[in-house]
Amino acid sequence: MIEKKKSMKGVIRISIVAAILMILPGSSLQRIDYRKGMNNNVCKSLKDNVLVYYIFVDSQETTPWTEFDIKSTIDSLTLAIRWLENQARTYGVSLNIIQDYYIGADYTTIKKPLPMGNVVNSLNIPGFAKGVKELNSWADGIAKRAGITFNISEKDGIPEIKNPRNKERLVAYLRDEKQVESVALLFMVNNYFKNDISVALNNMGNEDVEFAILSYKYPSVIAHNILHLFGAADLYKSEFRRNERKIAMAGQFFPKDIMQDNDFMNIKNFEIGEYTRYLVGWSPELDSRYASLLLDKIVYF
Ligand SMILES: [Zn+2]
Questions:
Q1: Domains of the chain and any CATH numbers
Q2: Residue 159 CA, ligand 1 centroid: distance in Å
Q3: Do residues 282 and 48 make contact, with C-beta atoms less than 8 angstroms apart?
Q4: Ligand 1 centroid to 228 CA: how many Å?
C-alpha cells in the first residue's frame, strides 16, 4: 500500500491508496494469473442485465452514516454505474446495470464492527488468509441481517423460500428476484476523513461469494471495484501487481485506464482500455502485445 498526501477543498488528507487487493481464499503459494477472475463466481461477464446491490454498514471505527452521506453516496454510485454503461456503449457492448440497496427505515444502516476496527487492519493484522476468512464471516453476518428484512412471498401460508442467511443465499435471492445472472455485492463503510482501503474479495476463486468493501464514495473507486468483481486487474503497484517491468509497461500502454490508481480523480478522465475490456468479457481476444500483463509474480497467501 502506498501513502500519499493530497489537498482537497483546503483540507489536507492523508490516504492510503485504495490498493485494491484481489484475494484468493486459503493460504498457498500461487502465481498470479488474472484470467482466473474471468467469467467466474457471481459476477461473470459485465454484459446485458447486471445487478449492483449495496448495503450501508456502520462499524465502530468508521464514521456513522448520515442521511446526507447516504444520499450523496447513492449519487456517486449512480454516476459510476452510468459511466460503466456509457463505456460499454462506446465499445458496442450491451450493458444494463440495475441498482438496488438495503437501507432500513429513516436511513438506518446495519451495525456490525469490522473484525479489527477498519478494513486494512482486518485484512492484514491476523494475516492475509485469516483476515479474508474473518471478513467473509463479517459480510455473511450483514447479509443475514439484511436478508431477515425481506418480505418472502408465501404460498398456502408456507414461505416458498427461506430468508437469506449469508452472502451466497442473498445473491441467490437477488438473482431470482431481479432476473439477472450477475450480482455485484458491495458493502459501503463510511471512511470520510479516515485512512482505509477499498477491497475486492474472493474474485479470483469460487470458494466463497465475491464482494467488495468500499471505504470511499468516489465514482472512480466504485467503478474500479465493480470492474474487479467482473475480472479486471490492477494496472498499478498493488499486492498482486508487483512486477516493476510490467507495472511500467501497463503505465505506458494504459495510462488512462480506470484500473490505474485513481483515488480522488474525476472518473471523466478515465477509460476502459483494451486489456481491461478483455478481462471483463468485452472482447474475445487479447492482443499478444499485452499478454504478459496477464501474469504476475508468485505470491504467498
Ligand atoms: Zn484495484
A1: 18-300 (3.40.390)
A2: 40
A3: no
A4: 7
